[in-house]
Design brief:
Blueprint: E1 4-13, E2 16-21, E3 24-29, H1 32-35, E4 44-53, E5 58-63, H2 66-76, H3 83-92, H4 95-103, H5 107-111, H6 118-127, H7 153-166, H8 171-179, H9 188-201
Parallel strand pairs: 3-5
Antiparallel strand pairs: 1-2, 1-4, 2-3, 4-5
Length: 202
Amino acid sequence: MIGFLRGRLVAKNPPQLLIDVAGVGYEVEVPMSTFYGLPAIGADVNLFTHLVVREDAHILFAFGTERERRLFRELLKVSSVGPKLALSLLSGMSVDGFLLCIESQDADSLVRIPGVGRKTAERLLIEMRDRIKNFGATPGVRTGLGAGIVETPAGAQAEAFSALIALGYKPAEVTRLLKSVDASAQTTGELIRGALQAAAAK
């Protein structure tokens, strides 16, 4: 099991990253919560990982905090929740936001996330209720992701569009969400964050 990666960030095409670890390139998938905190390409990153083994592929998921990885692993234990949906949940809301939804039995906020239907949301509320008790309220400590990135607006728009499609949003909906984002948003992370906030508010 690969539990941790420390290396140089080579490429980022949300939600996928390429990390150079001592000359070996690791392809990983990350939630948007981790993507927001990534440094510029070429900088060093430290990420917690979880390996999913399938018949047709080995997929490595990476997280900026241990709490994110822990919640991801707990979500995988819920019936009908696979890695893709777990990643969408972590992209659509913070760990603390998810815990609050479970504590307050807020199914409406969960169903706003792509791929989460009413039945899945209700299953999450039931099955995660006892599992979240050990999480506590203390925010996780990031493992030195860095201070963010600066990109050209055109490149950022394209990356944000691709990331939202990967999260399950329809192209027309992505276009609408990105148009609703404040004009001051310039980086990929800011655009995605704004679009997800717009989606949650609808």
